[in-house]
Amino acid sequence: MPKIKIITIKSPIGMELQLTTLGATIISLKVPDKNGKLVNVAVGLKSPSNYLAESYLSHNLLLGSTVGRYAGRISNGGFKIENKWYKLHHENGVHLHGGKVGFDKKYWNIEHINEVENPSVTLTYCSPHLEEGYPSNLNVSITYELTADNDLKITHKATTDFATQVNLTNHSYFNLDGEGSILDHELVLNSSSYLDVDDQLVPTGKINECENTRFDFRLKSVIGRSDFKGFDDTFILGDKKCKATLSSDKTGIEMQVYTNQPAMVIYTREQFPDLEFYRGAKYSKFPAICFEAQNFPDAPNHSNFPSAILNPGETYLNETMFKFNS
């Protein structure tokens, strides 16, 4: 088994990111609060070895991990490309987050570390033909960059040797207080519609309007409002540059999310299992929120969704920025 490596980069203004090569995973992301104190806003575990424990893996949390080859759910146990059927690993017909051993469980290579201006880390992984059932040899790179403006920029790139389906994202859970719950956080989403799903949370192909529903967060609202039931939903993103804003009065930290992707899965798990979290952090009901910028889940099986096919000679690109203010 390869040795898990830890990489830490720091920006000149104090922001700090810690990663591990297992799953190209974010362990911690520290940003200054309104008093200049560093707060870890990304949920992580006590040590890299905790990510290998069955007590963690059995819950499929993907804390801070890279998701691939395809983020979200795919129906029918697979998909067709050029009239050829590719069977994917699935449970009851549903393939989730890249399969049984997705990118979150792979050991990534450290390609480059830049420790000067705008420090960054680039990690790479080569996914072989038919891994988890996906066609093609897929070469993937992820660059994590801290900018001078207190931003975390995540850039996913991929190239292929023949046509395949690709949909990558980062699965970080955010809590701007570094502990407790996100129910008192305020949220704005640049989205007026979301994907309809069936009882397995697989898109039906229908698009629903957010207006006059619990999904309408176009105006700033506390997350834990009276109609909040938790999210595991795909929001179709609008034209405004800023796609989502999360803020906490307690720490004064605001996080804005920018992305070139057409959708964002918002996920709020109700409770975390009993795990050893980074520096002993304690979390309560609705502990954190994920902003999974990506293409539509199950796009391979819905012709009315944006295509997720990557062809030879093309480069897949997911650029997502988390901008922090305090």
Textual characterization of the structure:
The protein is mainly β and 326 residues long. The chain contains one helix and 27 strands. The chain has one helix at 54-57, and strands at 6-10, 16-20, 25-32, 38-40, 65-67, 73-74, 78-81, 84-87, 95-96, 109-114, 120-127, 138-146, 151-160, 164-165, 169-171, 173-174, 186-189, 193-197, 203-209, 221-222, 232-236, 242-247, 254-259, 263-267, 289-294, 309-310, 316-325. The protein is globular, with a radius of gyration of 19 Å. The relative contact order is 0.19. The mean pLDDT is 96.
Biggest sheet layout: 9 strands, antiparallel
Distance between the termini: 42 Å
User: What is the helix fraction of residues, given as a range?
Assistant: under 10%
Apparent shape:
globular
Low-confidence stretches: none
Strand content: 35-45%
The largest beta-sheet arranges its strands as 10-11-12-13-27-23-22-17-20
* Global Rg: 19 Å
Order of helices and strands: EEEEHEEEEEEEEEEEEEEEEEEEEEEE
Q: Helix- and strand-based class?
A: mainly beta
Count of extended strands: 27
The number of helices is 1
Which helices and strands appear, and what pairs or packs with what?
Blueprint: E1 6-10, E2 16-20, E3 25-32, E4 38-40, H1 54-57, E5 65-67, E6 73-74, E7 78-81, E8 84-87, E9 95-96, E10 109-114, E11 120-127, E12 138-146, E13 151-160, E14 164-165, E15 169-171, E16 173-174, E17 186-189, E18 193-197, E19 203-209, E20 221-222, E21 232-236, E22 242-247, E23 254-259, E24 263-267, E25 289-294, E26 309-310, E27 316-325
